[in-house]
Amino acid sequence: ILDKRRGSSMRGYLETMGVTELAIEAHEKGESDHDTINIIEFNDEYFKIKKMSRVTDLGLELRLGQEFRQILPGDRVKTILATSDEPGKSVKIVSRMPTMNGIATVVDTKTLQREGNLLVLVQTLVIRNERSGKEHTTVRYFLPHQGEVGAPPVTAKGPTGKPVRGR
């Protein structure tokens, strides 16, 4: 579950993507009002994640070392490649995707880090807008979650950007 007390806001990341101010404010409000939960499973062969928040409800399974191509609305293509030097401890996911203002390359590194008796997931997102050269780094911390994970809000969107229904 996202630790809202530390780490960076997604504002700089979203600005680099060309997201409007109104959408950024809505994202920030959604993140402050609702939990962001990542359910992750990975080993030396694959990385699997289920992301749930006020704005997202999507799952993704990647085979390490194998590029994944996703067709987005408008026949736009997003490519994703996950690799790991320490399977089960850290993963690096490199994505190239169309944004509101050109192609962006995102390097998303997720590392398990021991803090006392807790294992914390540290996410470092580095986004680079290929057209403008603008780059931004965001660091977020996820704490272990115990108990039930509720259904995503009706405002959550799946991988196609369409609202999620019937879950």
Following the backbone from N to C, one meets helices and strands in this order, namely: HHEEEEEEEEE
DSSP helix fraction? 10-25%
The unreliable regions are 152-157, 159-167
Strand content: over 45%
Distance between the termini: 20 Å
Computed over alpha carbons, the radius of gyration is: 16 Å
User: Averaged pLDDT, please?
Assistant: 85
Question: Which geometry do the CA atoms define?
Answer: globular
Overall SS class: mainly beta
Strand order of the largest sheet: 4-5-6-7-8-9
The biggest beta sheet reads:
6 strands, antiparallel
List the total number of helices: 2
Instruction: Please give the number of β-strands.
Output: 9
What brief labels describe this structure?
167 residues, mainly beta, globular, single chain, 3-stranded antiparallel beta sheet
How is this structure best summarized?
The protein has 167 residues and is mainly beta. The protein has two helices and nine strands; from the N terminus they run H-H-E-E-E-E-E-E-E-E-E.
Which secondary structure elements does this structure contain, and how are they paired or packed?
Layout: H1 11-17, H2 21-33, E1 37-42, E2 46-52, E3 57-63, E4 68-72, E5 76-83, E6 90-99, E7 102-115, E8 118-129, E9 135-142
